[in-house]
Amino acid sequence: MLIYECMKKVIIFDYDGVIVDSLDVYEKAVISAFQKNNCNQITSRKSFLDLFDGNFFESAVKIGIPRERIPAILRELELNLQSLQIKLKLFAGIPQVLSELAKKCKIYIVTSNLTGVVKTYLESQKIMTIEEIIGADKEVSKIKKIEYIKSKFPNGKFLYVGDTKGDMIEGKKAGVKTVAVSWGWHSVSKLKEGNPDFIVKRLNELLSLVNDLR
Predict the structure, then answer these.
(1) Which of 25, 76, 110, 200 is deepest in the core (most CB within 10 A)?
(2) What pLDDT shows up at residue 110?
(3) Cα distances (angstroms) measured from residue 44 to each of 30, 56, 165, 173
(4) Residues 6+ positions from 187 with CB-CB distance below 8 Å
(5) For residue 197, is pLDDT > 80?
(6) What percent of the chain has pLDDT over 90?
(7) 2: buried, middle or exposed (CB in 10 Å: 19+, 13-18, 0-12)?
């Protein structure tokens, strides 16, 4: 059942490249999942990161990944990511900032990762401030996932925090203000192509953005 509130600040986070330093891990897991399904289009870091110029899954289809193989790829990706969890690290200051943000707003995660994978890792790090994690196993479109969150708070004020051009594009299409972080997977120049509303270079800048959210 949806919980409706008359007014609420909501901050929606991407996961990989924003909360966790996971580029090497996610790239390895994706390439392996593709290859296990006879999809060998990704041959370099650049070709991997190019998938995030838009929606990851739509980008994969555009380079020749058969859409009907996406469910099998997701299953393989989940196994790969679970086995590589030990190599992940939170970005410095994440637990503290999430704790502070939780006092001011609702926190959600919208990700191309898998819901269970993200949930397991965050619980292992004692991060319990997330209202809901919505991974690719629930819906591949970040636009639809953000719209679902918006439906919970008809008069809410929203920020979507991401680290790729695709995040910025999907956030804008979903009708929320977008925040690009400089420490993630895409360069600042690439992020600017997605026309973010804000670019932050330090994690604690998010606290000020939430305070100023009207």
Answers:
(1) 110
(2) 98
(3) 12, 16, 18, 29
(4) none
(5) yes
(6) 93
(7) exposed
Q: Which residues, 6+ apart, have CB-to-CB distance to 24 below 8 Å?
A: 87
Residue 202 and residue 214: Cα distance in Å, rounded? Answer: 21
Rounded mean pLDDT, 142-151: 98
Q: Please state, in angstroms and as integers, the Cα–Cα distance from residue 120 to each residue in 114, 126, 169, 183, following that order.
A: 10, 10, 28, 23
CB distance 76 to 29 below 8 Å = no
User: Which SS3 state, helix, strand or coil, does residue 203 take?
Assistant: coil
| DSSP letter assigned to residue 175 | T
What would be the CATH architecture of the domain defined by 9-21+89-212?
Answer: 3-Layer(aba) Sandwich (3.40)
Cβ atoms within 10 Å of 65's Cβ, excluding its own:
19
Predicted local confidence at residue 7, as pLDDT: 54
What rounded mean pLDDT belongs to the chain?
94
Is the predicted pLDDT of residue 40 greater than 50, yes or no? yes
- The answer to whether residues 110 and 47 touch, using CB atoms and an 8 Å cutoff, is no
* Residue of 3, 16, 6, 7 lying closest to 167 (CA atoms): 16
Q: What angle do CA 153, 156, 162 make, to 5 degrees?
A: 100
Report whether 143 contacts 167 (CB < 8 A): no
| CB count in 10 Å sphere of residue 178 | 24
- Which token pair is 133? 């994690």
Identity of residue 107: I
